[in-house]
Write a structure and sequence with these properties.
Oligomer: single chain
Structural class: mainly beta
Distance between the termini: 14 Å
Helix content: 10-25%
CATH architecture: Alpha-Beta Complex
CATH class: Alpha Beta
Number of helices: 1
Shape: globular
CATH superfamily: Inorganic pyrophosphatase
Strand order of the largest sheet: 2-3-4-6-5
Number of domains: 1
Number of strands: 8
Largest sheet: 5 strands, mixed, barrel
Order of helices and strands: EEEEEEHEE
CATH topology: Inorganic Pyrophosphatase
């Protein structure tokens, strides 16, 4: 997917170390983008991926770098990263494995476009 760099602000409702009702411990920050609806009718979920940023957060603003599509679920997960970091599929797969192992998913990288069209 090619698009102009998109910056989004997320609310983190499952910070690093959060343990959900299924016993999953979140190894990265996870949250949602307020007022942007996802495929499940809820606000768009996001993983926060970073090589350097590993402390629990309450909020995060960063660039959209990828979309994780799930073949066996109705929603996609977006991947945000710090604007100054280059993130690749390998890092995304490693850092989201704790949750994506339960789904048949694939990663689509969002590439910046140098095109001046909207």
């Amino acid at each position: 997917m090619k698009c102009k760099e998109k910056i989004f602000s997320a609310v983190i409702d499952r910070p690093v170390g959060f343990k959900d009702s299924f016993g999953n411990v979140y190894l990265i920050n996870y949250g949602y983008i307020p007022e942007l609806m996802g495929g499940d009718g809820e606000e768009q979920d996001v993983y926060i991926i970073s090589r350097d940023q590993q402390q629990p957060l309450e909020n995060f603003t960063g660039k959209l770098v990828a979309i994780i599509h799930r073949r066996d679920d109705i929603e996609d997960k977006w991947v945000l990263a710090p604007a100054n970091e280059e993130i690749d599929k390998i890092l995304i797969a490693e850092q989201t494995q704790f949750m994506e192992q339960y789904f048949d998913s694939w990663i689509e990288m969002v590439e910046e476009s140098n095109d001046s069209r909207p």
